[in-house]
Design a protein that fits this description.
The complex is a heterodimer of chains A (333) and B (325). Chain A is of the alpha/beta class and 333 residues long. Chain A has two domains: 1-102 and 155-319, P-loop containing nucleotide triphosphate hydrolases (Rossmann fold); 105-143, no CATH class. Chain A has ten helices and twelve strands. In chain A, the strands form two sheets. In chain A, strands 6-7-8-3-9-10-12-11 form an eight-stranded mixed beta sheet, with helices on both faces. In chain A, a hairpin with a 2-residue loop joins strand 1 and strand 2 (20-32). The model of chain A is unreliable at 317-333 (pLDDT under 50). By secondary structure, chain B is of the alpha/beta class. Chain B folds into two domains: 1-91 and 174-189 and 205-258 and 280-318, Rossmann fold, CATH 3.40.50; 99-172, no CATH class. Chain B is built from twelve helices and twelve strands. An eight-stranded mixed beta sheet of chain B has the order 6-7-8-3-9-10-12-11, with helices on both faces. In chain B, strand 11 and strand 12 form a beta hairpin. The two termini of chain B are 36 Å apart. The model of chain B has no long low-confidence stretch (mean pLDDT 90). Chains A and B meet through helix 5, helix 6, helix 7 and helix 8 of A and helix 7, helix 8, helix 9, helix 10 and helix 11 of B.
Chain lengths: 333, 325
């Protein structure tokens, strides 16, 4: 098995607010391989964007490590970013703000090449290639960002990150600022690039249905921690953590059946003063007295990992079922 | 005598551009009954927000408006500002996408709630405060008495949107226009707001126009749906019918672009191209350059919405998605 391209170990990120230390991300372990899409989902304030920024070095770590291709990702300062980190790139949410409006698209993309030591000419040639790669006309090199729609701008922003020949992309809500049809176009583009260019992709999104569609694995975050982590299909088909269950039940479906989605009462608590024990217990429909004290970490349950004492506990007590492969092998013999 | 609370008939809104006036809303008709939720769906630039703003006489400077908008029989278009002021808030009210900008940041919630009531209903301050507390209870704000003395910044996004809805309902309007009311919110919070809107319709016989590009939200709340494209009506009818057997290729395209849980992993099917900008609206059917069923007549003739059955309007004469029995 190939080693992960990006490895996050016990990552914690803290902010200072009115002199208080606020832990936005608290002890997250996550690995990403090339050719894999990991979706990062959760409500606003759960720390998913902070984690994404920490993964590329835009936020300093309070604890833990991030390694990219075996080397540490250091916090981005005024000093020049190390060359080996060029392979780790970020796609931002708003393509209206992430592209300099006064420079031509070709120049914007060529920067990625010249910063890597390529010539200006080489850069412009690559820019045309990359535009074609993301499904844009090559003539776009001579246009300005404002001449394009939101979806097209996001393609340009993606082409720009590709100029650095990345092996890993972190995309923070790359489609949420776009129109419905553009969302599908950009989501498909990202999935295709991961496949064709053998990239690793962390896709941060509050839109769970898109994550389900494109991600291989999904990590559900709540108040700075991952509460469920597993194969996208497994997690979606039968969510195990009560928070994941609530998230899935809250998605309205466009099936014309007129069914109101189920709401999750209460708000995400203030990360400056997280609840004791399981952080979800004040809103959890199945919480018991013990959840106030026990701080359950991720444990394997039903083919994925969840941080829920109740569900993990009952799974441990349940009789292990004989696996189907074992019986098959037995009958053959 | 018709039963409809609001009747919009061939509404047009023209905006001044460099190349003269351009129709941003072009002949939209619909009706809304009391206790009913009507959805307007479409991508940005489809004219859905302008349609809503024209009900309030809040169009951008220089805009020209035509057609007819009748609320309980009263023509709203062409009213003077003083006349509109008596209707806005009192008979029709609006909830916008961003609750952070809808509420005044440095006025207590109580003041913002009672201002409307005292102006429109002429109740005393004490009476208004009692009503305000009750209203906050209806929109499920915990501890209403304390909330009345609090400021918007002390509440979360979802709570602020509940308060904004309470402010909109303060003068007991008959029609609530909600423009992308949950787009800025998380799904869990969105579910709560949608449930609240449904409850208000049921209990208060409130009519609601909900504007969103999210067809899931439409499916959950709206009984009837208008799909707009480039300022024109593509298709309208009962939500369940439009979402299960759409007849306009654009409605079909919007549905195909959504992730389908039952076919997990399959690529999404986007509509090619992007919506036209004002001033570049194609000839004939505005959707024809992006339509996979395009026929020669679509390039030449501008289709008008036509009745296909009692409740369904369709602006697609070739009607390629019709199910032949």
């Amino acid at each position: 098995m190939t080693p992960p391209v990006l490895q996050l170990s016990a990552v914690a990120v803290e902010y200072r607010r009115h002199g208080l230390r606020v832990r936005a991300v608290d002890g997250v372990d996550l690995s990403l391989r090339r050719g894999e899409i990991v979706g990062l989902v959760g409500e606003s304030g759960c720390g998913k964007s902070t984690l994404a920024r920490a993964a590329v070095g835009l936020e300093p770590l309070a604890a833990g490590t991030v390694t990219f291709e075996g080397r540490p990702v250091t916090h981005l300062t005024r000093q020049r970013r190390s060359q080996y980190l060029r392979g780790l790139q970020m796609v931002f949410q708003d393509p209206y703000e992430s592209l300099n409006p006064r420079r031509k698209v070709g120049q914007l993309i060529a920067d990625g090449v010249t910063l890597g030591g390529g010539s200006r000419r080489e850069g412009l040639r690559r820019a045309a290639e990359l535009l074609e790669h993301v499904g844009m006309p090559t003539e776009a090199v001579n246009s300005y960002p404002h001449e394009f729609s939101g979806g097209q701008r996001q393609r340009i922003a993606i082409a720009r990150t590709l100029a650095a020949k990345p092996s890993c992309l972190i995309a923070d809500e790359p489609i949420s600022a776009l129109d419905a049809s553009a969302q599908a176009q950009v989501a498909n583009l990202l999935a295709r690039l991961v496949n064709e260019d053998d990239l690793g992709l962390i896709l941060v999104s509050h839109d769970l249905s898109v994550v389900r569609q494109v991600a291989d694995r999904v990590a559900v975050m709540y108040l700075g921690r991952i509460v469920e982590l597993g194969d996208s299909e497994t997690v979606w088909a039968s969510p195990q953590h009560p928070y994941t269950e609530a998230l899935v039940a809250a998605i309205p479906r466009a099936d014309g059946a007129g069914i109101l989605p189920t709401d999750l009462p209460g708000d995400v608590p203030d990360p400056a003063d997280p609840p004791t024990g399981c952080r979800f217990h004040p809103r959890c429909p199945i919480a018991q007295e013990s959840c106030r004290e026990l701080d359950q970490r991720l444990a394997p349950v039903a083919g994925r990992e969840i941080a829920c004492y109740i569900r993990a506990g009952s799974a441990r007590l349940a009789k292990p079922r004989p696996s189907s492969t074992a019986t098959k092998r037995g009958s053959e013999v | 005598m018709t039963g409809a609370l609001l009747e919009v008939d061939r509404l047009t809104v023209e905006l001044p551009t460099r190349s003269g006036y351009q129709k941003a809303v072009d002949g939209i008709s619909f009706t809304v009954d009391a206790g009913q939720v009507m959805g307007i769906a479409g991508e940005s630039g489809s004219g859905k927000t302008l349609t809503a703003l024209s009900l309030f006489g809040l169009l951008p400077h220089g805009a020209r408006v035509g057609g007819s908008v009748r609320l309980e029989g009263t023509q709203l278009l062409g009213l003077r500002n003083s006349e509109l002021r008596a209707i806005r808030g009192r008979h029709i009210a609006m909830v916008s996408q961003d609750p952070a900008t809808a509420l005044h940041p440095i006025l207590p919630i109580g003041t913002q709630l009672t201002e409307h009531m005292r102006h429109h209903l002429g109740v005393t301050k004490a009476e208004a405060l009692t009503r305000a507390a009750k209203l906050l209870e209806t929109v499920r704000i915990p501890d209403p008495q304390r909330a009345l003395r609090s400021y918007p910044g002390q509440f979360s996004g979802g709570m602020r949107q509940r308060i904004a809805i309470a402010v909109a309902l303060a003068a007991e309007p008959r029609l609530l226009v909600a423009d992308e009311p949950t787009t800025a919110l998380d799904v869990t919070v969105q579910a709560g707001i949608l449930r609240l809107i449904e409850q208000l319709c049921r209990e208060r016989d409130l009519a609601v126009i909900i504007i969103t590009h999210d067809l899931g939200v439409m499916s959950a709340t709206a009984q009837r749906l208008c799909v707009m494209y480039a300022g024109r009506l593509a298709e309208s009818g009962p939500t369940s019918q439009l979402l299960t057997s759409p007849r306009h290729p654009y409605t079909r395209g919007l549905l195909d672009a959504l992730p389908h849980p039952e076919v997990g992993g399959a690529p999404l099917v986007p509509i090619g191209g992007s919506p036209p900008s004002l001033g570049n609206i194609p000839s004939g059917c505005p959707f024809h350059p992006r339509c996979r069923y395009v026929r020669p007549q679509c390039r030449a003739e501008r289709p008008e919405p036509e009745q296909t059955d009692d409740e369904h309007l369709l602006a697609c004469p070739p009607d390629p998605l019709r199910v032949v029995p």
